[in-house]
From TrEMBL:
The keyword Zinc does not apply. It comes from the Bacteria. This is CBS domain-containing protein. SMART domains: CBS. It holds the Pfam family 4HBT. Residues 195-255, 256-312 form the CBS domain. Keywords: CBS domain. It comes from Thermoactinomyces mirandus. The lineage of its organism: Bacteria, Bacillati, Bacillota, Bacilli, Bacillales. InterPro entries: CBS_dom, CBS_dom_sf, Diverse_CBS-Domain, DRTGG, HotDog_dom_sf, Ser_kin/Pase_Hpr-like_N_sf, Thioestr_dom, WH-like_DNA-bd_sf.
Amino acid sequence: MPTKHEQILQYIENLDVGHKISVRQIAKELQVSDGTAYRAIKEAEKQGLVNTIERVGTVRIEKKHRSDIEKLTFAEVVNIVDGTVLGGRAGLYKTLNRLVIGAMKLDAMIRYVEPGNLLIVGNRDKAHLLSLNRGSGILITGGFDATSEVKELADKLELPVISSSYDTFTVATMINRAIYDRLIKKEILMVEDVLNKDKLPYHLRVGDTISRFHELLLETSHSRYPVTDEQGRVVGIVTAKDVMGYSQDEKVQKVMTKNPITVQLKTSLASAAHEMVWEGIELLPVVDEGQKLLGVLSRQDVIKSLQYMQKQPQVGETIQELSFRGFTEYEKNGKTGFFGRVTPQMTDSLGTLCTGVCTTIFTQAAIRTLRRKRRGDLAIHNLTLYFLKPVPIESEVEVYSEILDLGRKQARMEVEMTSDNQVVAKALITAHRIDR
């Protein structure tokens, strides 16, 4: 029987897109406490089923697939630009396809405003009416209001009219930044992307005996299984090694490894692979918030999936990419070197190289050096920055990475940074390899 939390999630999922919900309403209709309703709504928001908008409330939205994750709903735009909804609240769940900046005359604007667009414009009443009549939402900049005629038309057509105190350039930048962040997330594989959700995996229950383990072994040829309790929650893992020497009538509960490491659907695949390598395990149960079994992730699943990936993330101006963008690579005295300049974005409030950026540069230098020697994805397990001098803004720096020990799975490296032929930073790095 599903728990109250699961019943609420099912209830929300069955609601029509655009339906407005609240904690009090859910608690009253499903006869649960406000706390239970609140936690379930937050879980639904995490799953992409609803979106909460300030001064509007929580609205049921259409769950996005990874193929269109870069698209935003009007409800999300309201949150991004700290906006106020003036009209057309029923259309907040709709997805916008394109931004149009209304810095043109009306006759020219007609060519650009189409259904699914969002017109970013100031207090131009005729432009507002034109946009709505052509099926486009409106974002009014400068904190201006809309006329009652515009608001009534927006409600009738279910097209949102949003007002923001920011200027046109700022709101366009904020929305584009949000879309770009989505693109980065889209390229990062999650556990849910490789998990078979059609059926539960083979597993054992705490009351099963070892004879049941051997039955599954003959049936599936698998040598390890998650163990669940009566509610379907993962409580252990049992392997062929665990059952050796025990009678067929012994309970698996006695021989299993309790409280195993688990992952959730939103865990990145790289993080799961890192956990497997670090802990030396072959199988990770995939669970929900309540530790209920959803599936299993094997090392073979991870390797197979990583074969279709390049380094993560595959696109974007991530902190790593930005920090290392201006560096060029070369060979010197048998060492791999990187040459670059300390830009204003890389400094702290004192105008010297930020410690966090320094460790990012060292990490990137180590990974790129190791990739010349070994194929596969690399996970940094330890970084010790044991020497650091202030490096002023605009300083030219060189980073050298030297491999101290290179094993089949692990490598140790020393990385140092010099400026004006003086050592300004040193670090010792340990990395593990995730085979493809």
